[in-house]
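dumping this here before i forget
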Amino acid sequence: MKQFVNIEHFSKWFEDRYFSNEVAYVKSLDQSVLMSTAYAENVLNLKPNCSIDESNLALILPEVIKLESRLIKHKRDGLVMEKLIIDGVPQITYWIKRQIIIGMTLYFLIEQSINGEFTLKQIISPPEKVKKVNYSLFVNFNEKEKSVLYLLGNDINIKTIAQTLNLTESTIRSYITIQIMPKLNDLGYLVVNREDVVKVAKTLKFDKEIPPKLVEKIKPLTLLLKSL
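structure:
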C-alpha cells in the first residue's frame, strides 16, 4: 500500500502519474472526491470535494461500498467491473482500485483499466482486415440483433448468449445466419461465417454500447474480477 506524507506530496505524484485525458480519481471512504484528472472531472462529473452518488455515475452505492469494504478487510487492491451511465449511455467499465494512505487517512485511488477499452487479444494481435465491397444506408438492426452482436463482439460463446437472452442455441445461430449476416453484407462487409460476424461487430463497435434490454441482464452492477 502506497503512503504519502500529506496532500501536497500526493498531489505532485498524482499530476506526474496521469495525463489530463486519462481517467483517474481519488476518493475517501465516505465517497467524497479528493482529486481527479481533467477528463474524470469534465466527463464523469467527478469534481474535487463533490460526493459520488447515483447522479454522478448511476452507481448503486451500497454495492460499491460493500465491495470496497472487502478490499479493505483483506488489504488488497482489485480489478473491478462496474456498470455506469456515461453521457447517457450504459457502459461496462473496468477500474483498478488501489488503497493508498495520505497522512493517516485511507483513500481509494481509482484508475480506468485498459480492459475498459480493449481486450488483451485486441492489443497484442494485429488488426484483421475486413473486405468492404459496397455500402447501404438503409440497414437497421433491432434490439435483439444488437444484443447478439454486442455479446459476439465481446467474445461470448453461443451457449452463453442463448442463456443470457433466454433463447435456444439453434435460435441464436438462426439469428446470426438468417438475419444478421445478410444485413452486414448489405452494409458492404463480406461475411461468410460467425468469425467474420465477430470481426465486423468489433469494426462497427457493436461491442462498445450495451443495448438497453441487455443492460438489465448484467448483474451485479459492481463485480470484483481479481485481487491485485
